[in-house]
Amino acid sequence: MDIGIADLCVRHAGSADALADVKLFIPAGQICAVLGASGAGKSTLLRAVAGLVTPSVGRILYDGSPSSRTQRRRIGLIPQDFALSGRASVARNIMAVADIGIARSFAGLYPSAVRARAAHLLASLGLEESHLARRADSLSGGQQQRVAIARALLHRPALILADEPVASLDPATGEAVLTLLCDEARSLGATLLCSLHQPDLAHRFADRIIQLDGGRVVFDGPPATLGGSRVPPRIRAVAQ
Amino acid sequence: MNAAASWRFPAFLNARAVALLAAALLLLWYTGQRVEIGRMLALSGEAVLAQAGLADRSQVADGLGSTLAELVPIQLSSRREVSRIEGFDPDRLPPFAHIETAATRVSELNPETLRREERIVRTAWLVEPFGYVFHVAAKMLETLEIALWGSVIAVLIGLPLALLGARNVTPHPALRAGSRAASGFLRAVPELIAALFLVIAFGFGPIAGVLALGLHSAGFLGKFYADDIEDADPRPQQTLAAMGAGRLTIWGSAILPQVLPQHIACTLYTFDRNVRMGAVIGLVGAGGIGQELKGRFDLYEYGHVGTILIAIFLVILTLDLVASRARQAWR
């Protein structure tokens, strides 16, 4: 799914613009890393693309069309705070996006293809069958993050929005998870928009880096061209 | 460093909070005058002083004391005239029961001699030492059954009302307004009044009781469930909505698991309340222990009333313990 962002401005009441004058076109299948210091607007950009934040000005098009339920069904979202239903089991959290109807969902009658897909994702993310029945809030932060990733990938999305998907993971696991995310995106032909705090990971995994500072895009290009005087001091500090 | 040192930290009790507190106190003072809080405190104080021997007498202490004194001893046994028991078999008495015979001197007019004559009439009574306790237990069971079914009806009506009445689940704001209004209307009709009308429609007995309790508490559950649903953490809901999940899926996967403990607590409280109100609506003939209570009260049989009140207290206490365990299990 390609994303067109035109003159996007997001303003929160009583504070400065969270995003200002953002213009981007992200073609289908591109792996895009969003870098920036805390408060630069990375999460707001991802939330705006996910439809969770209403733009004050501007609009976002998905494959050239405005957001609709059909388009949203093609999105996989990994929020920064995981946003799992804490009291529900891991299985129920993941299967929530399976679109199998509430009666079958309550009875646990998941189609075998969906079961296989969920099991494959969880196993790839280092989780085990014994985790399925556990309550999401009984898992560690890193495990919850991996469940959120599995939930976002289950329905084979055309657009994956990952808000700091490796923030709660140790470097080795983080790299493995990012590899999985990129592999899945490539095999699905999906666009991946991923905010990161680790510039080295962005350099290694992304086709394109978008840097934000104070809600504005200050760099947009391939990883090889990032650096030098084009990068503001705050961003350089993060990069170092 | 210097700039940070001059930061102002907000106080918990700011001018707005103090003004609100003052307004609340003023309201309490004004309404307290209207509901005679001052007189209530004076009379209660007088009663306490009278009990402590520091005052001569107290109207409240005398009134309460005489009423409470009549409730004891509580009635445990039952005594029924054998001739009025259908199919009575003296060889097959109930457990612990025995027969007592009482001789009564009766003065009757002899139609042949037209003179009053005295004769001895012997009456046999079946005495069961705990007969009244069993009778009250059976009536209490009926009240529990009425309360149970009232609660089932409340859940069956309250849950759809809540799904329509919760802002984050309802398909349309107009449906939310309609559902909230319906819940409000059901709550606004007290059980006792509903039972009065339903007794006229369905006749004396448990049907009126079940419906009166069910409809009223459906209004409560419709509101409480909807408030819980609206207060649920929005983040899992927003995430599923961003991925195109439907309203029912969001409710089932992101809301229900969160609010289930509150729903269970509300439902258990509704059942507890229905048991207590079941005793009240029995007063207008809607079945259960209340009907027995009203009958005994009207006959001035305060010992029986004492037994009934203790039975209601014990049941409420037991329900509270069970509900507490259930809430812990679902935490």
Notable features of this structure?
heterodimer, A: about 240 residues, six-stranded mixed beta sheet, about 25% strand, B: mainly alpha, three-stranded antiparallel beta sheet, 12 helices, about 10% strand, extended
Describe the model.
Chain A is an alpha/beta fold and 240 residues long. Chain A has nine helices and nine strands. Chain A is globular, with a radius of gyration of 18 Å. The model of chain A has no long low-confidence stretch (mean pLDDT 84). The model of chain B has no long low-confidence stretch (mean pLDDT 90). Chain B has 331 residues and is mainly alpha-helical. Chain B is built from twelve helices and three strands. Helices cover 67% and strands 9% of the residues of chain B. In chain B, helix 10 runs antiparallel to helix 12. Chains A and B meet through helix 2, strand 5, helix 3 and helix 4 of A and helix 9 and helix 10 of B.
